[in-house]
From TrEMBL:
It is found in: Cell membrane. The keyword Transport applies. Coiled coil: none annotated. The lineage of its organism: Bacteria, Bacillati, Bacillota, Clostridia, Eubacteriales. Belongs to the ABC transporter superfamily. It is a peripheral membrane protein. Its main location: membrane. GO terms for biological process: peptide transport. GO terms for cellular component: plasma membrane. NCBIfam families: oligo_HPY. This is ABC transporter ATP-binding protein. It comes from the Bacteria. InterPro entries: AAA+_ATPase (IPR003593), ABC_Ni/Peptide_Import (IPR050388), ABC_transporter-like_ATP-bd (IPR003439), Oligopep_ABC_C (IPR013563), P-loop_NTPase (IPR027417).
Amino acid sequence: MITAQAAGKRGEETMRRNTAISVDGLWVSFTTPEGIMHPVRNLSLEVCHGEILAILGESGAGKSLLAKTFMGILPSDAQVVKGEVSDSFGFEERAMVLQDPKKFLDPTLSIGKQIMETLKYSGVRRSQRRSEAMKLLERVAMDDSEKRFHQYVHELSGGLAQRAVMAVALAKKPKLLIADEPTTALDEKNEEKLIDLLVELSEETALTTILVTHNLQAARKAAHRIAVMYAGRIIEIGTKEEVLTQPVHPYTQALLASDQFRKNDKGRLVTIQGIPPCPMNFPKGDAFSVRNPDALVMDFLEEPPMMKVSDTHYAATWLLDPRCKRSKIAEGGTHG
Ligand SMILES: Nc1ncnc2c1ncn2[C@@H]1O[C@H](COP(=O)(O)OP(=O)(O)OP(=O)(O)O)[C@@H](O)[C@H]1O
């Protein structure tokens, strides 16, 4: 079990290492019959080798599109219209675990065969492939791995398929792992095991991991740093401790508060008031302002730039600008 303090130390160490991915002013757009939309907007980010970066945010924030940009697998109707993504990974050094695991498994091959095929391309000798495949199944917490080895995707539950995809992904011996909601179909025990595995891999093999998730517990346990996305932008980024214990952006605060509430009172589903904005029509200014009861006048007028909280902690909120007075917009006032 890793303590928060140890993980924090590890986070700082990790950040001192080399940059693995650099994103500079990235815009991703879709042309739809209704017009052009920009679900990822002017996004800049650096990820270090061996780091686990969790990307948190509600549905539609642009998390998956960002992750797909890292893999070079944007949908055919999406375009990078501005900005740059550079990284130090070859195509074969990347692996991705996507939200719908069953889509990514070959229905004509047993799980074991699929892992062994991947091991072949990773240069593992024929005589070692079976035992390595079994080890991988065990590592991804597949009980009864001998049975799973021979099963086909249609015989697996969502949770087992998710872990099978993870085993195939790890058979690639990747240096970069993009894990998009890898724990959604898992129960609490298996979620914990998978998260432990990500942490172990980051320590043992310096695997760089982008963990896209709605799941705050997963981010809390696994991540070195957390980036919070809202309306296509990163609105706060910092070490796990900074974001979780000293959140600055009102959206991050609301996200954490809603999660806290859910934990304390499991019977009630508490979410942030209002709905996330549509990328076709993001609100002017700070896109969260229309859902923020404490929004400043300035929030409705101009988009806040990323501002420094500490060397490792940044947030895009006018609350950090000394010129901005907290002048709450009058009830019923116009929302820019
Ligand atoms: N192929 C597409 N065509 C048009 N719009 C798309 C397409 N793919 C994604 N979008 C839109 O881009 C926005 C961001 O999508 P994305 O999948 O990145 O969100 P997300 O933060 O990962 O959400 P979720 O957690 O629900 O997966 C959404 O509004 C989505 O509707």
